[in-house]
């Protein structure tokens, strides 16, 4: 069974660095053939809302391992 990731991207994280690093992160994911879906968080609290909505829509798939917040944790990516 393959793993699919649901990435919640806050482009404003790290003072906007997450947005500038997203193309690099995306390239690494594609290079490694990682299956993912991206949702962009555009206002405070939306990331939590998006994660909850995903969990409700996919209760059988949702684990801590496949919902990823692409925010401050990823702003240091250098080929991840």
Overall description:
With 80 residues, the chain is α/β, with parallel strands linked by helices. Helix content is 34%, strand content 20%. The chain is built from 2 helices and 3 strands. A 3-stranded parallel β-sheet has the order 2-1-3. Helix 1 links the parallel strand 1 and strand 2. The longest helix has 15 residues. It is flat. The protein starts with a strand and ends in a 10-residue tail after the last strand. 15% of the residues are buried.
Task: Tell me the layout of helices and strands.
Blueprint: E1 4-9, H1 17-31, E2 35-40, H2 46-57, E3 67-70
Parallel strand pairs: 1-2, 1-3
Task: Based on the model shown, name its key terms.
3 strands, 34% helix, 80 residues, single chain, alpha/beta
What's the quick description here?
The chain has helices at residues 17-31, 46-57, and strands at 4-9, 35-40, 67-70. With 80 residues, the chain is α/β, with parallel strands linked by helices.
Percent of residues in helices comes to 25-40%
- Tell me the Rg in angstroms: 12 Å
- SSE-based structural type: alpha/beta
Portion of residues in beta strands equals: 15-25%
User: What does the overall shape look like?
Assistant: flat
Q: Tally of extended strands? A: 3
> Strands across the major sheet, in which order?
2-1-3
User: Mean pLDDT, rounded to whole units?
Assistant: 76
Low-pLDDT residue spans: 70-75
First-to-last CA distance:
24 Å
What is the count of DSSP helices, taking H or I runs of 4+ residues?
Answer: 2
Q: What is the H/E string?
A: EHEHE
